[in-house]
Design brief:
With 360 residues, the chain is of the alpha/beta class. The chain is 37% helix and 14% strand. The structure holds pyridoxal-5'-phosphate.
């Protein structure tokens, strides 16, 4: 099947917006009808067993894509919600937990920590002047009294790719718990979560998994689940949601303990189509194409420490570049004087060449 048969890219100019929302997949669009609307239409409330199987299929597809056991994944509405639930589930202690992230981490992740009760949690930021992907920088902080590190695998504002495995190794030597944000890397960079030795990973499907908004998820290392006690729960975090005994609540032994009430289904039906499309093409192939296109767009730049997005610091030329991209009817965005352009398998060498001429 050709790529254009797999994706529905908006009409107009080149689509460079995968860092914001990846293009829709045909499979995802069809799954919305097949796995969500049709069962509802045909069975009404009796569609629930089918829908719950679909949610398990979603976890299974993530496990196939990223490694890790299916029962270590739990759907969440977004990364922020998953991170807040995880931090609030940690064993309490007398002094605040110090949580380290780089100042270039996605702001929402910082907002989650800084809005938690200050007697329990403290946000520590590595200054943006220090490189986010240098394990030595992280090590200096770990020598202090950091408890938890949140590593952003690929930074959305700079495109910087972090060596998660190296940073995690040093963190573990210093007894630091490791959390990883893969919002901008899942579906683009080959990932095998168990090799990282991280404690929890947070992601969504909206970007390189081309699954649309709403299908967030978290992965929690199986051996750590028993020490975590979520404070926001519901019947779907129960070991048997259908027990219906208000006097007896028992947490699921799996990552499902991080679920709460009735789960949403529609976003996961679409997202499953996105993940299956990515699995079908292969993450290695997606990354290979991405790097080839990035290299065409900027021939002299080393992309080995970069995710899939060209975060072009346009300086004084930002307005001029923005106008030229608009004239091309390109889909892109801008953060301050940085123009962000993502190159996915739906982009062509010709489009990357047009970018090269503009960026020159
Ligand atoms: C690196 C990174 N983390 C997290 C998010 C989004 O977090 P949430 O799902 O909580 O909106 C984004 C969105 O652009 C991101 O780029």
């Amino acid at each position: 099947m050709s790529l254009s048969e797999k994706f529905i890219v908006p009409a107009g100019g080149p689509y460079f917006l995968t860092h914001s929302a990846g293009p829709m997949t045909r499979l995802g669009k069809s799954y919305l009808d097949k796995h969500y609307l049709s069962p509802w239409q045909d069975k009404g409330g009796d569609a629930w067993p089918y829908w719950l199987t679909l949610l398990d299929r979603f976890n299974g597809a993530l496990s196939k894509l990223l490694g890790g056991r299916e029962d270590e994944f739990a759907p969440q509405s977004n990364l922020s919600a998953g991170l807040a639930k995880y931090l609030l589930a940690l064993p309490s202690r007398d002094t605040p937990l110090k949580i380290l992230m780089h100042a270039d981490a996605f702001p929402s992740m910082g907002f989650v920590v800084s809005s938690l009760p200050p007697e329990g949690y403290e946000l520590v930021l590595i200054d943006e002047k220090q490189p986010a992907n240098d394990p030595n920088v992280w090590e200096e902080y770990f020598r202090g009294d950091i408890d938890i590190a949140l590593i952003t695998h690929v930074h959305s504002a700079t495109g910087v790719l972090s060596p998660v495995e190296d940073i995690t190794r040093i963190a573990k030597e210093n007894n630091v718990r490791v959390l990883v944000d893969v919002a901008q890397s899942a579906g683009l960079i080959p990932i095998h979560i168990p090799s990282w030795n991280a404690d929890a990973v947070f992601g969504s499907c909206i970007k390189w998994l081309c699954g649309g908004p709403g299908a967030g998820w978290m992965w929690v290392r199986r051996e750590t689940l028993s020490e975590l006690t979520p404070i926001t729960t519901g019947w779907f975090s129960h070991t048997n949601p259908f027990e219906f005994n208000i006097r007896n609540f028992e947490f699921s032994e799996t990552a499902k303990k991080f679920w709460d009430g009735t789960p949403s289904v529609a976003p996961y039906a679409m997202a499953l189509g996105g993940i299956e499309t990515v699995l079908d093409i292969g993450v290695d192939q997606i990354r290979k194409t991405n790097l080839e296109l990035l290299q065409i767009a900027r021939p002299n730049f080393d992309f080995s420490e970069n995710g899939g997005t060209l975060c072009f610091k346009a300086g004084y030329h930002a307005n001029e570049l923005e106008n030229k991209l608009k004239a091309m009817k390109a889909f892109f965005d801008r953060r301050g004087k940085t123009i962000r352009l993502s190159l996915h398998v739906t982009n062509t060498p010709d489009q990357a060449n047009r970018l090269r001429r503009l960026l020159e």
